């Protein structure tokens, strides 16, 4: 019989708990940034045409355009790392994990944009959803597969299961025929 080592289990629980706390803090910060009312003299129209806002940002100049696009990419990018951390799985398909994480990031971004419709001074922008989703995907691809591979490599050196002392040979039957 085999027993599970308790040290690996408690470390996984600690990582998941820390991931959940960081995820909650990040989502609170994102909500504070994106859902607080702004006191502005005028508000531009909602952008429902994909890439129109990005073209308008780039028309302002490369520096200002890159700053605005970078802000859109970075806002939800930590979700690309925090969502898999909360999931806590290391033996998972790279593509399956990417699809789940990006889909969740896109839904969170879409939810934020929908909530912004009721906030004074905030404007709905479909390009924000696109940039946020790309940011989540880039962060996930840049960090998660390498970290998972490192964790798997580390756990190969230290077995997670510890065997009990042997209690003797298991009896075997050489041949079993079909009963008449």
Automatic annotation (TrEMBL):
List where the protein spans the membrane.
12-35
Which InterPro entries does the UniProt record give? Teicoplanin_resist-assoc, VanZ-like
Q: What sequence ranges are listed for the domain VanZ-like?
A: 25-143
What's this protein's name? VanZ family protein
Q: Does the keyword Membrane apply?
A: yes
What Pfam families does the record tag this protein with? Answer: VanZ (PF04892)
Organism of this sequence:
Streptomyces tabacisoli
Question: Domain of life here?
Answer: Bacteria
Per UniProt, the keywords (alphabetical) are:
Membrane, Transmembrane, Transmembrane helix
């Amino acid at each position: 019989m085999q027993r599970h080592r308790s040290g690996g289990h408690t470390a996984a629980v600690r990582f998941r708990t820390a991931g959940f706390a960081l995820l909650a803090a990040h989502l609170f910060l994102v909500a504070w940034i994106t859902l607080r009312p702004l006191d502005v003299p005028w508000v531009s129209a909602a952008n429902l045409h994909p890439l129109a806002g990005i073209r308008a940002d780039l028309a302002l100049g490369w520096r200002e355009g890159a700053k605005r696009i970078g802000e859109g990419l970075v806002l939800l990018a930590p979700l690309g790392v925090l969502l898999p951390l909360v999931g806590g799985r290391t033996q998972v398909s790279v593509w399956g994990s990417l699809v789940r994480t990006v889909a969740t990031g896109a839904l969170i971004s879409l939810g934020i944009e929908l909530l912004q419709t009721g906030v004074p001074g905030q404007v709905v922008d479909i390009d924000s959803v696109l940039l946020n989703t790309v940011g989540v995907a880039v962060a996930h691809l840049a960090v998660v597969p390498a970290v998972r591979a490192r964790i798997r490599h580390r756990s190969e050196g230290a077995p997670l299961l510890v065997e009990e002392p042997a209690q003797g040979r298991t009896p075997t039957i050489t041949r079993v025929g079909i009963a008449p």
